[in-house]
UniProtKB/TrEMBL annotation:
HAMAP family: Edd. Keywords: 4Fe-4S, Carbohydrate metabolism, Gluconate utilization, Iron, Iron-sulfur, Lyase, Metal-binding. It comes from Acidocella aquatica. This is Phosphogluconate dehydratase. [4Fe-4S] cluster binds at residues 155, 222. SUPFAM superfamilies: IlvD/EDD N-terminal domain-like, LeuD/IlvD-like. Residues 407-599 form the Dihydroxy-acid/6-phosphogluconate dehydratase C-terminal domain. The keyword Iron-sulfur applies. Belongs to the IlvD/Edd family. Its cofactor is [4Fe-4S] cluster. Its EC number is 4.2.1.12. Pathway: Carbohydrate metabolism; Entner-Doudoroff pathway.
Amino acid sequence: MVHPRIQDITSRIIARSEPARSAYLARIAAAKSEKPQRRALGCANQAHGFAACAPGDKAVLRTGDGASLGIVTAYNDMLSAHQPYEHFPDIIRAAARAAGGVAMVAGGVPAMCDGITQGEAGMELSLFSRDVIALSTAVALSHKTFDAAVFLGICDKIVPGLVIGALSFGHLPAVFIPAGPMTSGLPNDEKSRIRQLYAEGKVSREELLDAEAKSYHGPGTCTFYGTANTNQMMMEIMGLHLPGAAFINPNTPLRDALTTAATQRAMAITAAGNDYTPIGLILDERAFVNGIVGLHATGGSTNHTLHLVAMAAAAGITLTWDDFSDLAEVTPLLTRIYPNGSADVNHFHAAGGTGFVIRELLSAGLLHEDVRTVAGGGLGAYAAEPKLVEGQVAWFPAPEASGNASVLRGIADPFQPTGGLRVLDGALGRAVIKTSAVKPERHIIEAPAKIFHSQEEVQAAFKAGELNQDTVVVVRFQGPKANGMPELHKLMPPLGVLQDKGYRVALVTDGRLSGASGKVPAAIHVTPEAADGGAIGKLRDGDMIRVDGTNGHLTILVAPDVWAARTLATADLSANHYGTGRDLFAAFRHAVSTADTGASIFTKGLA
């Protein structure tokens, strides 16, 4: 039975979304075809579609009834997470042929690395790349010749963008195929320690680069629990992966076998068969609630307070930050994965992984079991782990007990009773804070503000010793309208140094931190943003600010008459609008919605 609070929140999402969701479902029902999609095309259109195919594939596409499977890939060989995808199309093509159909690469989507662009101008394209990926996915599928699609993507903006694009073709079955995390390298807490020492000038750049290279050392996703790995958990708990697929390392027999199995399922769930399972029906209100519960239970990335809202809107579903906050109140934290602990995702997987988490949450009624999934049946099938048996994938029940209680715990003994994500309200508007990695005594910080308009200004002030005090560092004009809402990871080492010196420190920003949100309390995604007339633009150096992650408040301790008389600060953002491709995104900055409605060009005006 579903927990009453989970059901109440789900019911209000259903009621709120009904007009848009009903219209969406009507559209995908009208687009369904029980005959191969290509049959609706003219002869010249079809001939263009199979002109370059091998003779056997051409015969299937010309006269046969076999399904045509589109592959949308984010492959590139610079990104460690996406490099393994190079050979996936060959595996998928072979599996599709064995199932009597054909698979073709329908198109590619861009895949940028936030780890490479951190602190650089390219980071200002990062969030917008999600919407570019959605558009690119739509272009890839626009030929209307495919009966289903598989999606090869793993990292931060790539998976949300692929989901948004796939939902625009919601009548098609869609299976997401992960590539897995790299094997464990230098422990994440050691990497963090060396970064902090470098910020203090105690180790050299060469020593820092050596530590980073030992952390990020091979094919696969980075092993910390940031947005990329949160994506993979989420695709599993929302039913778009095969069970247990998320965290199998690349270039292993089990990884390849899961890719074959995923292709077989995509071919089996088209409208031509008896198990039609389109993505538009899988991703309903219950699936999104399951995704948010999974986010909280695993201490996942705050980026998903943006992405899930935008993804849901693509399916005609309206999520709000209140939904996130209320679900966090009833969801216990079951994992400790860096930055919420010292373990990495390989340790988490070895301890029981997503199958264990799903079983525990289902046992407490915190997930909807009666959902559609690409595997068939309900979510109970995902309380499992895959293994190779005579070269084939077989699923076995998830372990009954955690293999490492310092990394993963059951519902009876959580790390904390709530998910550790709060929505903050106050005179500045709304913000999000992730407290799961913050010590309880730092959940409430009250200190004078220091105002900055870039993270470079913060770093300069830190090096000059100007931040050696209790302080709330405010970094504004970092929202989506201002400069694309970059992640501000380079703030974490200096702020961590200040905190370790004993100062009471917090961050307030209309920018992002994502999966790197760590031990320093940070009120992020402040909306309205400074560039949109938000009250954060009224702050001045010395204003007392209270960041209250316990009770959900962001308070300005300034006399009401003084605050009312304040004018909004301005900033010259021209340098952020040119170079590194930023001039091409002027239309995005103009059209983008607010953070609480997904920070997307597709959701402006969403209530």
